[in-house]
Amino acid sequence: LAILKRADIAMSGLGSGSGTGKGTITQPELQGVFQFQNLKYRNELYGDVDSKVELKESRLSVEAAGSSRGIKSHANAELRLDGDLPFKANVDIQKFPLEIVTKAYMPDVEGLTGIFGGKFEMAGRLKIPSVDHLAGSLDSIQIDYAGLQFKEARPLQVSLSDQAIEIKDSLLYGPHSSVELTGKIYPQEKWKLDLNLSSKVDLEILS
After folding, report:
1. Contact assessment for residue 195 and residue 183, using Cβ atoms and an 8 Å cutoff
2. 107, 100 in Cβ contact below 8 A?
3. Is 68:45 a contact under the CB 8 Å cutoff?
4. How far is CA 32 from the centre of its chain?
5. DSSP letter string over 136-188?
6. Radius of gyration of the chain (CA)
7. Which of 30-34, 35-39, 185-189 has the lowest mean pLDDT?
8. pTM of the model
9. Confidence of residue 49 (pLDDT cuts 50, 70, 90)
10. What is the Cβ-side half-sphere exposure of residue 153, based on CA atoms within 13 angstroms?
């Protein structure tokens, strides 16, 4: 959590863990179990999270599961600690901080915060951050930007093909406003946008 706080990501909670290790300095084999209690992002409570971590043959594997107010989430991921640091992950989570994504992949975007959740799988590289595969559905979205707040009106379908993230159908609504968005985002071209945006704004929002 201290690492996230240094990146201005407002996570809090109590953590504990234990682990074992063997092997050599150059080829270590490690196993660990970590628990977080009352994990929070800003004012959103995640509850308790249990995770298992294993490092073996230059592969870091992570499994995590949590529950908050009866809503369960889980995720598993694998990272190879060589080359471009390739990773793959499967996620079923209801509350994921948007800032973790924007700070890693869109560092020039400021003032965009929120939470999203859904089921999706992804793969890519971390050394030079890139996404090679992405598919899934974002079932819940809460976005705060420039003093405006938006939520999803229906699940947002997302996929990646030909090095472009395609947003197939989205509708976000907020007080006196709504935004509908379709199109493509190109991660390997400095996140170039090719989007179709339509919006409705009630003039009451200006008062």
Report:
1. yes
2. no
3. yes
4. 23
5. EEEEEEEEEETTEEEEESSPEEEEEETTEEEEEE-EEEETTEEEEEEEEEEGG
6. 19
7. 185-189
8. 0.59
9. confident
10. 12
